[in-house]
Fold this protein.
Amino acid sequence: MIVLKKTFGNSLKKAKSMSPKKVIEKIKNSGLTGRGGAGFPTGLKWEFTRKASGEKYLICNADEGEPGTFKDKFIIQKNPETLVEGILIGCYALSAKKAYIYLRGEYFYLKKYLQRAIAKLKAEKKIKIISGAGAYICGEETSIMNSIEGSRGIPRHKPPYPAQKGLWQNPTCINNVETLTNVALLFNKNWNKNYRLFSISGNVANPGVFEEKLGITMDKLIKKAKPKGKIKAISFGAAGGIIPWNKSIILNKERIGKTGATLGSCTIIVISEKHCIVNFCKNITEFFVHESCGKCTPCREGNYRLVQLLNKITDGRASKADIRLLEDISYFIRDASFCALGQSSTTHLITALKYFKKEFQRKCR
Ligand code: SF4
């Protein structure tokens, strides 16, 4: 696997032999984009932060909390040194005063891997690990900053963007674990921007993290995880949407985008014919009710109403008008929520109602 290659400090040495401006140029030319889901060009993000005035900070977002996503955990366990090297390259290119690794609260047992890697690269003074308290919303870039500053982890208004006013109102760059690992790897030969890590789980006998090139067909990828039984649908994680099984569909951002779902952080949950889409959607909606930070009404109240409606449907008490209401509220939450968590919290319902409406209707009285 490319992502498991060790760089042994050589990438940092190579980066330091270049000017920070040249390093940023190299990242820009590489075509590396964010691997946390949004896919923003990494070099451009670095350039915005470097050009802003004030003390610079770098945050490594290790708050991986979406159900079905576990690729960052895999990197932290298997190749933490390369990740730390990527962070140090970022600090050099941005002239950052300090870097923070914001580690998901439930990943407390991974702290030792990061500590060992930081010590190995003698970066104790430069990099600090901060453990979250278990809130999914702290994976959102402005909530992370509030949490690091010691405030409640809720999103801030954008603009100003973190590259202008981030931590303590200073320019801050936030990159995901996989992105920063690839920063170190791209200084090596044979790096290819199209290789991605896919977290595959659900109705499979061999769940895990698989590295494959974007453009692979669904069939070829899923075979590696050994599906159990006949596949009915694929979910791209809690926020990515659900589409019917199509063995020849190509996995890239554009093709999946056309279905109404999003490839995001390359999470794939396999759903077999035995499983009910309505119950699956109810599980995801309950997750969002639990994780909504409560700041805005559409997400806080809307998702709560959706669970009530889904309970009515699964109990056989709903009418077809309730399904229309379910759809209306889903679109409303998507369009009116304050942050990306709320805006993507109903993608699963919108896509499930597009492709599997009959399953919902069959449960009505
Ligand atoms: S959409 Fe609103 S309530 Fe939901 S997490 Fe974001 S700010 Fe909080």
